[in-house]
């Protein structure tokens, strides 16, 4: 992996933390919005300048914590390219909704360089405020996505997947899997946010129940 | 897979999207709320035409479904007078109400379930469907009926409905069972109100009234089918009121006809009236809370009544963003010089100009015969001043007046000391003052 | 020599690809056992001159040449257990060409410079039966291996000759193109692997129902209920009104005139005299109308961002104020100040008396400003936006004093309480449905009501300690609530579609509502019991009706 010589390790860690946090809050929000767990299991906390909902159920909390720990390690090492939250109907086993977060590392791939329109040029640091604003907008969009997503009638469960590099360290709880994509989905691109080291795109794919 | 649609393309209109259970196509939302949303009328006419031609189709229901889906996509706000969704649903449901092979067709029953949402009296619709046998083999009907009953506090009746569905082996049974179990769990948590009315969920029709509600006898089928398609034309003037077309009820009062919303409620609803002549006087004295403001009046540019006057310049350049610019500003803008701050000129005039200390105390003495000037004597200064005090035609005068009024070191900039730089200075000043 | 050397399985078993008319190689070549047997032969040798080039094959992908061929020989694939690999397992159609190593037990054919082989270092032995593998270099026995009978071999061989010691890149490209072929055939990607967190997530402990099945709220006990007519007093026609939540197209002046905007025209109806007239018609659609506090002027916001001020008595436009770059969906007067909120989130304050009208900007909203209301003592301004926030501004500042993010949907309904100066009510949209009450001195939320439908406007009553809220999705109703008990007094299903705009009469007794069903209805909901000169009686007799649907 080519590392730009001026890359600051501290900066990568900080940025990875921001991204991991974002993933954690996003997963919580998705679980709430899509009704995977009952609304009573969630409570509001202040984050990113808005109220976001996080689970208070200890099992779910622990589950997400474990995932987050590994995600953070992978992010620091730059080993994952995508994070997927797949929502499956318990009855039919079909994937009904798929949330996809693309992780681009600044300066790593040439094709992402052209997408770096958000970050300021030439090492201007992005302020925390700006990043917070961007994440706030994404959270709002996740909340507002209910305006077009179908209501999940059946009980659903969720799975977390990552697209990892071939040389990524794989802890025992993770194993190879299929990509769990939806056939002929409707796809909606949400806003992106970027830190100095990462750029995250969010996309949701779903099936219209027609 | 088609390209993803940007949420931001329609996020600005999120409050105008009616919630639906089956979700919406983001692509069509982006199309409707984007910048290039097309006129709906031609497509609507096309659908109407296809409906007219559909009578000989194998499956005429499909074209109606396509039309309904198109209406839902094109008008995310739901049932409004522009979308004409409810009349369309009424027509579609009424048209096939007596067709036996549609009675348990999922698509047809789904259409009824959509219509129920907008009906004034959902309960009547459900019972009417039961009496016609529509949906009796489909779990969908029982689920929707039971859930409406539950929402409105009729839990015992909801229970009845689920049981009826299970008894009839409504398809898909497993799903119906699941829903029923969930319902039972909810009931266990919130037991039904004992004072709930005990009227049956599926009222049995007394023989004497059978002619009114009727069985499945076909007759006078669905009078609404012939209703003309166009929505009430949009009007600008208030004074004209155009009544919405209502199907002729007399032709279709046969059994099996439920009627449209409009028909059923016509005795309860006031019709809109034109404005003119209507009054609603205020019961309290009308006293403005504040004295009348004086609003700044813009000077109106009188419209030119010269014939064929054409403006040949691009007015948008002059009135860029509502602010008026003069031609010089426009010119500067086009060159990218507008607003440019020029560095102050190196004050060469100041550097070159010498400060002349007026030595009042020094004796002036007789003027030398030769007209050589030495700058350090008062007499010399006087000579110089005299020379340059000749008025050269107005302009000089003004600047000199200004300068005379100054009693500070700005004498340096006097036009009395004539350097080349002074000329430049002055011309600059002259330019600036015209702005 | 008989010791079995623990051969690291880095190099797969060698096997030969032979042309159909050559003799088949020894079968033992295809088993692992045979491999190790063979390797024992090599133990004797110590070094290998081609070790380096062979070591280039240490990555997982080395073994991925695909040869579609008519070879009849069985193939074996050898996968390195250490390295995670793309799964190319046992697909019969794919032949895997591994680095040729010491597959020959017969010593005769070992070529010249292989006496130096060490156990681990194999030399690709050239032989006429073994096609030259690209990248295995330093073998100059090429001519022997050239066999023109089969195409793939030929291509390999010819690619050999081109390159004595192929550089990394060409080897890479050939390998990667083959990789890609395989990957395409299998439908997998080589640049990443997909990992799933295996443990199942916790299951739901209980299974109650979702958004769409809310239980209906029990209605208020009769003792609290004031008798309110549930039928409109009057219904007027509003054809062509735009169906957009974010606009504010209806207002009632203190002079008892009602202004309504119907797409591109504004009509003014004088409720005293009954006369109605078209005030203006514009090129662009109208997005907001608001009467000034003195009832003499009407501010008209347009889709282009222009705000016009009209003198209604003279029926003339006094001025056009520019500056906003997107549509002005809401305006609000505060004596001579007119605040305009636009789609890009900017709020401009204009002093209408002077030429340079813009006196300040209040920019904070990240979405369209759809609600705007000045406090009656002019000290604070409240704004609501499509970014789901409520901003409370002090009059002369440009940053909000409080920004409230409790609403989960757009906030269009914003209303200050007439009897308690610092009490503000705000209502949220489709997926929020709440009315929140705020103390604007401290910023605290003091009360909340879950209304059950998208809130489109809130109006406080002057005569009763009550407020009325109008709604859109899904109930299209209006509700009257008592404050501060927050109990519902009455619920009236008002229109066939969303009640988008509402305004109170100057005497505070009648609410006018307008919806996209093109009806403008008047509801006598806050009837005052105070008598005044005869008019009261006339009005009352019209509307009391307990049978109320619409």
TrEMBL record, chain A:
It is found in: Nucleus. Residues 13-204 form the HORMA domain. GO terms for cellular component: cytoplasm; kinetochore; mitotic checkpoint complex; nucleoplasm. Keywords: Cell cycle, Cell division, DNA-binding, Mitosis, Nucleus. The keyword RNA-binding does not apply. GO terms for biological process: cell division; mitotic spindle assembly checkpoint signaling. Residues 109-129 are annotated as: Disordered. The keyword DNA-binding applies. InterPro entries: HORMA_dom, HORMA_dom_sf, Mad2-like. Pfam families: HORMA. This is DNA-binding protein. It comes from Yarrowia lipolytica.
From TrEMBL, chain B:
Gene3D superfamilies: 1.25.40.430, 6.10.20.170. Residues 346-355 have a biased composition (Low complexity). GO terms for molecular function: protein kinase activity. One of its GO terms (cellular component) is kinetochore. SMART domains: Mad3_BUB1_I. One of its GO terms (biological process) is meiotic sister chromatid cohesion, centromeric. InterPro entries: Bub1/Mad3, Mad3/Bub1_I, Mad3/Bub1_II. Residues 404-427 have a biased composition (Acidic residues). Residues 345-435 are annotated as: Disordered. Residues 45-211 form the BUB1 N-terminal domain. It holds the Pfam family Mad3_BUB1_I. PANTHER family: BUB1 KINASE, ISOFORM A-RELATED, MITOTIC CHECKPOINT SERINE/THREONINE-PROTEIN KINASE BUB1. This is YALI0B23166p. It comes from Yarrowia lipolytica (strain CLIB 122 / E 150) (Yeast).
UniProtKB/TrEMBL annotation, chain C:
One of its GO terms (cellular component) is anaphase-promoting complex. WD repeats lie at residues 279-320, 362-397, 492-525. One of its GO terms (molecular function) is ubiquitin ligase activator activity. Residues 236-523 form the CDC20/Fizzy WD40 domain. One of its GO terms (biological process) is cell division. InterPro entries: Cdc20/Fizzy, WD40/YVTN_repeat-like_dom_sf, WD40_CDC20-Fz, WD40_repeat_CS, WD40_repeat_dom_sf, WD40_rpt. Keywords: Cell cycle, Cell division, Mitosis, Repeat, WD repeat. The keyword Cell cycle applies. Residues 105-118, 156-171 have a biased composition (Polar residues). Residues 138-154 have a biased composition (Basic and acidic residues). Residues 1-40, 105-124, 136-179 are annotated as: Disordered. The keyword Repeat applies. Belongs to the WD repeat CDC20/Fizzy family. This is YALI0C03377p.
């Amino acid at each position: 992996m080519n590392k730009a010589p001026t890359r600051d390790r501290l900066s990568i860690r900080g940025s990875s933390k921001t991204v991991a946090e974002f993933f954690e809050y996003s997963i919580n929000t998705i679980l709430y919005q899509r009704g995977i767990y009952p609304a009573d299991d969630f409570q509001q906390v202040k984050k990113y300048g808005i109220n976001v909902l996080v689970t208070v159920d200890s099992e779910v909390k622990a589950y997400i914590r474990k995932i987050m720990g590994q995600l953070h390690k992978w992010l620091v090492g730059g080993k994952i390219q995508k994070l997927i939250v797949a929502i499956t109907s318990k009855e039919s086993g079909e994937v009904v909704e798929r949330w996809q977060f693309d992780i681009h590392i600044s300066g790593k791939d040439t094709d992402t360089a052209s997408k770096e329109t958000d970050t300021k040029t030439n090492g201007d640091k992005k302020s925390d405020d700006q990043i917070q604003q961007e994440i706030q907008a994404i959270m709002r969009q996740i909340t507002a996505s209910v305006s077009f997503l179908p209501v999940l009638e059946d009980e659903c469960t969720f799975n977390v997947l990552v697209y990892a590099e071939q040389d990524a360290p794989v802890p025992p709880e993770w194993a190879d899997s299929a990509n769990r994509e939806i056939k002929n989905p409707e796809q909606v691109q949400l806003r992106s946010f970027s830190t100095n080291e990462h750029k995250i795109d969010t996309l949701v794919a779903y099936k219209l129940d027609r | 897979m088609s390209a993803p649609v940007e949420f931001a393309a329609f996020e600005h209109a999120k409050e105008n999207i009616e919630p639906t259970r089956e979700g919406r196509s983001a692509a069509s939302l982006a199309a409707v709320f984007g910048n290039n949303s097309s006129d709906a009328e031609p497509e609507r006419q096309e659908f109407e035409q296809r409906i007219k031609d559909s009578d000989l189709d194998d499956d005429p229901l499909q074209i109606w479904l396509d039309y309904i889906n198109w209406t839902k996509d094109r008008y995310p706000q739901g049932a409004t007078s522009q979308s004409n969704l409810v009349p369309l649903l009424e027509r579609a449901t009424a048209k096939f109400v007596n067709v036996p092979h549609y009675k348990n067709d999922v698509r047809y029953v789904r259409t009824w379930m959509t219509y129920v949402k907008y009906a004034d009296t959902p309960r009547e619709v459900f019972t009417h469907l039961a009496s016609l046998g529509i949906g009796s083999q489909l779990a969908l009907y029982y689920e929707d009926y039971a859930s409406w009953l539950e929402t409105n506090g009729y839990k015992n009746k909801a229970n009845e409905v689920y049981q009826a569905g299970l008894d009839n082996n409504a398809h898909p049974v497993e799903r119906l069972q699941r829903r029923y179990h969930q319902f039972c769990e909810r009931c266990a948590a919130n037991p039904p109100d004992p004072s709930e009315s005990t009227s049956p969920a599926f009222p049995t029709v007394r023989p004497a009234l059978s002619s009114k509600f009727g069985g499945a006898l076909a007759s006078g089928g669905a009078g609404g089918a012939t209703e003309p398609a166009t929505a009430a034309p949009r009007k600008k003037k208030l004074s004209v009121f155009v009544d919405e077309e209502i199907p002729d009820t007399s032709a279709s009062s046969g059994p099996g006809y439920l009627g449209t919303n409009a028909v059923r409620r016509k005795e309860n609803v006031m019709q809109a009236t034109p404005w003119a002549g209507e009054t609603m006087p205020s019961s309290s004295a009308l006293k403005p809370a504040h004295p009348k403001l004086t609003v700044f009046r813009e000077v109106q540019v009188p419209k030119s009544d010269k014939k064929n006057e054409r403006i040949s310049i691009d007015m948008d350049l002059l009135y860029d963003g509502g602010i008026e610019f003069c031609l010089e500003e426009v010119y500067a803008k086009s060159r990218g010089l507008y607003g440019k701050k020029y560095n102050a000129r190196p004050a060469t005039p100041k550097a070159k100009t010498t400060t002349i200390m007026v030595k009042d105390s020094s004796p002036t003495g007789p003027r030398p015969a030769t007209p050589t000037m030495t700058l350090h004597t008062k007499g010399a200064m006087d000579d110089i001043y005299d020379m340059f005090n000749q008025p050269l035609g107005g302009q000089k005068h003004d600047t000199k007046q200004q300068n005379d009024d100054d009693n500070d070191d700005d004498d340096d900039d006097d036009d009395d000391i004539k350097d080349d730089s002074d000329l430049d200075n002055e011309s600059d000043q002259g330019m600036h003052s015209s702005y | 020599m008989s010791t079995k050397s623990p051969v690291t399985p880095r190099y797969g078993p060698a096997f030969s690809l032979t042309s159909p008319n050559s003799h088949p190689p020894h079968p033992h070549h295809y088993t692992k056992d045979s491999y190790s047997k063979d390797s024992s032969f090599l133990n004797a040798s110590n070094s290998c001159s081609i070790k380096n080039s062979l070591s280039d094959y240490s990555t997982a992908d080395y073994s991925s040449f695909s040869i579609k061929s008519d070879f009849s020989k069985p193939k074996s694939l050898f996968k390195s257990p250490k390295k995670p690999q793309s799964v190319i397992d046992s697909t019969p159609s794919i032949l895997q060409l591994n680095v040729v190593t010491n597959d020959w037990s017969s010593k005769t054919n070992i070529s010249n410079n292989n006496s130096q082989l060490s156990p681990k270092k194999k030399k690709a032995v050239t032989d006429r039966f073994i096609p030259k593998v690209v990248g295995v270099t330093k073998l100059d026995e090429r001519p022997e291996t050239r066999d023109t009978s089969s195409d793939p071999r030929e291509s390999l061989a010819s690619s050999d000759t081109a390159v004595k010691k192929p550089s990394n890149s060409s080897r890479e490209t050939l390998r990667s193109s083959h990789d890609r072929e395989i990957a395409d055939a299998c439908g997998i990607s080589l640049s990443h692997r997909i990992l799933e967190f295996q443990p199942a997530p916790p299951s739901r402990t209980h299974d109650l129902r979702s958004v769409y099945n809310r239980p209906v709220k029990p209605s208020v006990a009769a003792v609290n209920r004031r008798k309110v007519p549930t039928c409109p007093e009057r219904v007027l026609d509003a054809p062509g009104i735009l169906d957009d939540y974010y606009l504010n197209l209806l207002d009632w002046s203190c002079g008892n005139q009602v202004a309504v905007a119907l797409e591109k025209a504004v009509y003014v109806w004088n409720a005293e005299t009954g006369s109605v007239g078209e005030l203006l018609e514009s090129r662009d659609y109208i997005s907001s109308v608001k009467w000034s506090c003195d009832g003499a002027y009407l501010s008209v916001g347009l889709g282009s961002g222009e705000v016009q001020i009209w003198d209604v008595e003279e029926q003339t436009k006094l001025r056009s104020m520019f500056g906003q770059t997107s549509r002005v969906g809401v305006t609000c007067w505060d004596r001579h100040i007119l605040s305009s909120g636009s789609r890009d989130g900017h709020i401009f304050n204009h002093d209408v008396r002077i030429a340079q009208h813009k006196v300040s900007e209040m920019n904070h909203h990240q979405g369209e400003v759809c609600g705007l209301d000045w406090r009656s003592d002019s000290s604070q301004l409240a704004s609501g936006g499509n970014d789901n926030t409520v901003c409370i501004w002090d009059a002369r500042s440009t940053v909000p004093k409080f920004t409230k993010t409790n609403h989960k949907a757009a906030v269009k309904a914003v209303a200050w309480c007439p009897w308690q100066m610092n009490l503000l009510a705000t209502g949220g949209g489709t997926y929020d449905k709440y009315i929140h009450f705020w103390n604007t001195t401290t910023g605290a939320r003091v009360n909340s009501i879950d209304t059950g439908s998208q809130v489109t406007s809130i109006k406080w009553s002057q005569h009763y300690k009550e407020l009325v809220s109008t709604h859109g999705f899904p109930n299209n109703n209006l509700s009257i609530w008592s404050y501060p008990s927050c109990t519902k007094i009455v619920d009236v299903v008002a229109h066939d579609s969303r009640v988008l705009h509402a305004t109170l009469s100057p005497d505070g007794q009648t609410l006018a509502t307008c919806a996209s069903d093109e009806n403008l209805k008047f509801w006598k909901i806050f009837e005052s019991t105070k008598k005044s000169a005869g008019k009261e009686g006339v009005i009352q007799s019209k509307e009391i009706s307990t049978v109320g649907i619409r």
